[in-house]
Amino acid sequence: MTCTIDPAGLIRTLETSTGTVLLDVMLPEHYQAHHIPGALNVCVYEVVFMETVRRLIPNPDTPIIVYDTSSRSQASECAVQKLTAGGYRNVCELSGGLEAWLAAGRPLEPAGAALQGDPGIQEGSYRIDPEKSQVVWTGRNLNGRHTGTLAISSGEITIAQGQLTGRIALDMKSLTNSDLQQADYRDMLINHLLSEDFFEVEKYPQAEALLKSWSPIPGATPGRANYLIEADLTIKGVTHPVQLPALIAPDADGIKAQATLEIDRTQWNVRYGSGRLFEKLGMHLVNDMVTLDFFLLAV
Questions:
Q1: 274-295 tens-digit pLDDT
Q2: Which residues belong to any copy of the Rhodanese domain (predicted)?
């Protein structure tokens, strides 16, 4: 059973014990912004966590108290498990973490520091950086899958009065394949996809997603899609409405976004090998569903 200690107990321990080590297991930037006075910092997310702890605390009998942000986070619990498995015999966890410490009226370092919320997405107009953005496509059949990329030729995102609009233009002639190692097979696949059997890029060199609105996804946590984007997707001159669950977050240079879209290619007149439209295809059967993963940096 995990040893836990509340803020009052931590205060008593720090006042009466000179050998106890208080360990902040959060990211270094969080530690620098605010931490309990006297705490050391070793981030539990780092692969060298135990190596660093052994260097700083070589005696496995040393009393250690670990903490993170709140009772909602499992970082300190994870640290206790790692330390115990690593042979440390006297490890406790501060119940409620920094939030409980502050609720008990205790100070943080630096003096006057307070817990900071996650930064929000700022309203404004952003230009999609084509050099740092791309779309990864995945197509499948009974034998496996093929994947590759599409370049984003241009685009912009505007966030105003709580709503998102914008445009993403895809250069269909830029289509690549990343799974086939033999150049002749890879070139044959790419040429087939560029041809009239699939995307007919000489006639339709650009696809476009017109972003119309967004709505927050209730209960979304970091690492999960937090907005649902409504858009019109145009491929081969055919336009249909789509919904993109997207993970959107502020970045030092603007905003980053990742969205995954599953489309039925036949709705955009990409018909080759569709079992819904042709019979007895044999080895030429290709799944109707195609996955498009958008990775965007807008500045």
A1: 999 999 999 999 999 999 999 9
A2: 16-110
